[in-house]
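Journal club side-thread
Mid-discussion, someone asked how the predicted structure for our own chain would compare to the paper's figures. Pasting it here so we can look after the session.
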Amino acid sequence: MLTYPITLTPDTNGTFLVQFPDIPEAISVAEDETEALINGLDALEAAIEIYFDEKRIVPAPSKVKRGQPSVTLPALVTAKVLLANEMVSQGVRKSELARRLNVHMPQVDRLIDLRHSSKLENIEAAFHSLGKSLEVRVA
């Protein structure tokens, strides 16, 4: 799982500015800490989509300090982030991944679409085609 620390800065109108030190593009506002976590996840996912579009590595989260609020990406989103990062690291474009998987481009597009509910076995196959394996564990 990818857990990103957040900073909450009180604003002059009684709200909080929500920011992610590791992903500066992810910014939101909230009335309280509970709302900050919800809005923060939306902002984080939107920023990650920017990284995907620009074919940039999504930065790994820094360590969460004791008492610091944080946002954890859902497991499927985490898998998609790690897949996209591996593709960028290896210089593998979506068309090449589609060729390796023997699928059409829209299927690969869905593998790295955070809003699409991809099957885990398809993501696992994509990692395998990149010479990697996907491991799942319960903590």
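Post-session note: Helices lie at 33-53, 75-90, 94-101, 105-111, 120-129.
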